[in-house]
Design goal:
The protein has helices at about 20-30, 60-75, and strands spanning about 10-15, 35-40, 45-50, 75-85. The protein is an alpha+beta fold and about 90 residues long. The chain has one domain (about 10-85): Methyltransferase, Cobalt-precorrin-4 Transmethylase, Domain 2. Helix 1 packs antiparallel against helix 2. It is globular. The two termini are about 20 Å apart.
């Protein structure tokens, strides 16, 4: 009998203009099954990592959205790396 309880993860990458980043992150969080979101600049430097847990919803996300909004205001293009569980 095999024990196949390990979660498989996969990543997706999105390249967006700064003004569209917050909207995309909200959309991704709403989809669920997201383990982590990493924002990078075009050179690949990590700007912020957002670990997402099942309990992180609603008002708990407001500081995250504020940080992403501040980054989006100063960085013209960002890369979003999304780690999903399957």
């Amino acid at each position: 009998m095999s024990n196949d309880t390990q979660d498989r993860t996969r990543t997706e990458t999105f390249k967006l203009d700064g003004g569209k980043v917050l909207e995309k992150i909200k959309e991704l969080i709403h989809q669920g099954n997201i383990r982590r979101i990493t924002l990078k600049n075009e050179a690949g430097k990590t700007l912020i990592e957002i670990p997402l847990t099942l309990g992180l919803v609603g008002a708990a996300l407001l500081p995250v959205f504020a940080a992403v909004g501040a980054l989006a205001a100063v960085v013209t293009r960002m890369v979003i790396v999304v780690e999903k569980t399957e």
